[in-house]
């Protein structure tokens, strides 16, 4: 197995008196698809937001390739090689698809501070290459604001890949998509992740997607990790069955 | 200060807070439900005062006459509110938020002239409340009995509004719509009826606030913008949509103002500090402080995200040929035109840069400013003062002035980029008002209300045509520069941040830093416009920093259309020209301007240039 890109140890977060995430530890390796699942309110989003810098954990360690990233702002974490997609797509609606990807490329190269050069002259080929990989090249000229939802998800994926990330954090990447599209998007993600040796951590409600696309699954319930392993292992785990089916053993 | 004088100031402040609360509560209610920032709300307050004055004269100065007049005036103002809602706003609820703002500006202009026509330009001093004209002695000081009544009215109205909101079905709808307007619409509530009724109640509160002031304050035509600035501050400090917050904020601000007057001049460590001069600024200082600590006001909550906002359209690069043709035409005009036209064109050129710089910040950068005149005025004053007080040559003063405006923008911008939406707009207004009152009160340096005189350009620019060419070159270069920046990586980053702050942050863009830089950039260029303007007039007055100047800028941008690049230039030209023509022909130029703006708003909800583009597109489609 290749080395761990993301290492999480003993993550804690409480809101008021409510323990949202308690003692969560896991790791994601390069090229691996790790699914974080759990019922509503299990603490998935809280967990996620502590990794991407939007929340600071009460205690615990988050290491990206050995480096502690707790307390860094989202944009600093991005600079260290973490790409993100959002549950509700966030793209620049008034810019074209290509310009959306170029924006990330310009930012990655630290070239957004120029006042007089013309935006769009640089990184066009790189942007098109990324768009080609997610199958959006034919729509590169279109404005993001008019795209179909599934297409926006793919644009987001291209943006997330623009800084050559070591880790992709995908919060409900297929929410709001049709079942067929969902599997297609995650197959694409898995293919790209393996080809580029990127670690992927994603949350997901669609169990078809989880059990067909994830290499490993970890299950969160009421803030605590109750299971982890390969899809067949997790499927067979009585704790998981109890949580999802509500049956006592 | 003795205990007695502290008590007196406290009571004074509480009395002043009553009307402030009524007006602000109405504004807050209307904003909460309709999401419209109603600039005409101050005009409704003004009408309340005038109405009460006339009705008291009509009924006679008896207790019944007085109180009948107050109540009737408030109700009449409520009807005016209904008229505004039904005739104007209802037709444009689907238009972009900023366009609704433009419509309410137009209503301000129209109401001001209706008041001028009906009641004349003189201040009207109302009677004291019959039966309440005596004073009550408290701790050896005399307090007008009417003030004590006002102090009681505030909490009573708060209680009534609270009952209305929590105990009635209407109140439940209002609270629901304040939280989530679309959801209420989706549940099948008749929005039109709800909005009209909210406008009625809000307007009655404004009218009542005005009518109750008649024994304390003469009715005059300046009240509309004066009170709207106060009311904005109160609603923002209290938290938009929060009635209790408005009450709390009104008291804080009313009392703070009263204490500033009461304290007067104090010597601290050998320095004379004049608190009475602080009265014009203190509320804005409080607001700036509150917003930095609590960005949604004392009792406010973050606004629910608006769903499915129309994405801003793509901007098109103006072609060089297009720009060149216009430049050549503008350069040729003085050859054919008279002196008067040349001067008017110089004005237009200055305002075009002012308007383009405002468009830059509110359109592509997504930060609406209600106080853009601050930088225009500071540029103008810097130019004048550098020349008059520091003896700099005119050319040096002209070139340094934008830097001074930029320095102020660095300070103001640091606070402003921490906020967004209406709160940001209000904070910009606050900074403009702070600048205005400093200029207005610092007689020894700025010349106070008289301004600065005798700042004429150097000899080689004394000729009006020569100066016009200078203005054309400087302002034209400023406009071209700003347009160019919009298409640079920097400009794109701003647009990206406007579209999705979340995504911008997630791809490593330091959005606040970019917005701050943009603030400084447009501040400096608005300062350039102001400096060029100052030397073309030979004098500057505080009105160049006033709210009216800021709203003029907004009107220019919105009139031309915020969604196109050339719109703000066209808007500046039409507004400046139209105002000149109309003002020369009628005393009631504001009403005419307001009428024209309303007509445009109702006919071209995308602004003039946007509307024309849509027309051309439709015409082409029909031909194809």
**Gap between N and C termini of chain B, in Å?**
81 Å
* Beta-strand fraction estimate of chain B: under 5%
Which architecture of the largest domain in chain A does the CATH hierarchy give at level 2? 3-Layer(aba) Sandwich
The beta-strand count of chain A equals: 10
Could you name the CATH topology of the largest domain in chain A?
Rossmann fold
The N- and C-terminal alpha carbons of chain A lie at a distance of 34 Å
Which spans of chain A have pLDDT < 50 for at least 5 consecutive residues?
none
What CATH architecture of the largest domain in chain B would you give? Orthogonal Bundle
Computed over alpha carbons, the radius of gyration of chain A is 18 Å
Named CATH topology of the largest domain in chain B: ABC transporter involved in vitamin B12 uptake, BtuC
| CATH level-four homologous superfamily name of the largest domain in chain A | P-loop containing nucleotide triphosphate hydrolases
Question: What's the overall geometry of chain B?
Answer: globular
Coarse structural class of chain A: alpha/beta
Order of helices and strands of chain B: HHHHEEHHHHHHEEHHHHHHHHHHHHHHH
> What percent of residues of chain B adopt helix (DSSP H or I)?
over 70%
Main sheet: strand order of chain B:
1-2
Give the gist of this structure.
Chain A is of the alpha/beta class.
Description:
Chain A has 249 residues and is of the alpha/beta class. Chain A has two domains: 1-81 and 165-249, P-loop containing nucleotide triphosphate hydrolases (Rossmann fold), CATH 3.40.50; 91-164, no CATH class. Chain A is built from nine helices and ten strands. Chain A has helices at 44-51, 74-79, 97-108, 124-133, 149-161, 179-196, 207-213, 231-236, 238-245; strands at residues 4-15, 18-29, 33-37, 59-64, 67-68, 82-85, 167-170, 199-203, 216-221, 224-229. In chain A, the strands form two sheets. Chain A has a six-stranded mixed beta sheet with strand order 6-7-8-3-9-10, with helices on both faces. In chain A, a hairpin with a 2-residue loop joins strand 1 and strand 2. In chain A, helix 3 (97-108) crosses helix 4. The relative contact order of chain A is 0.18. The mean pLDDT of chain A is 89. Chain B is 72% helix and 3% strand. The mean pLDDT of chain B is 88. Chain B is mainly alpha-helical. Chain B has helices at 3-34, 41-59, 63-87, 97-119, 145-167, 169-179, 181-186, 191-211, 223-238, 243-263, 279-293, 320-336, 339-362, 373-388, 394-416, 421-441, 443-446, 464-486, 489-499, 501-506, 511-537, 547-560, 567-585, 589-603, 607-623; strands at residues 135-138, 141-144, 265-268, 271-274. Chain B folds into two domains: 14-293, Orthogonal Bundle (ABC transporter involved in vitamin B12 uptake, BtuC), CATH 1.10.3470; 339-623, ABC transporter involved in vitamin B12 uptake, BtuC (Orthogonal Bundle), CATH 1.10.3470. The N and C termini of chain B lie far apart (81 Å). Chain B has a two-stranded antiparallel ribbon. In chain B, strands 3-4 form a two-stranded antiparallel ribbon. The chains are: A alpha/beta (249), B mainly alpha (624).
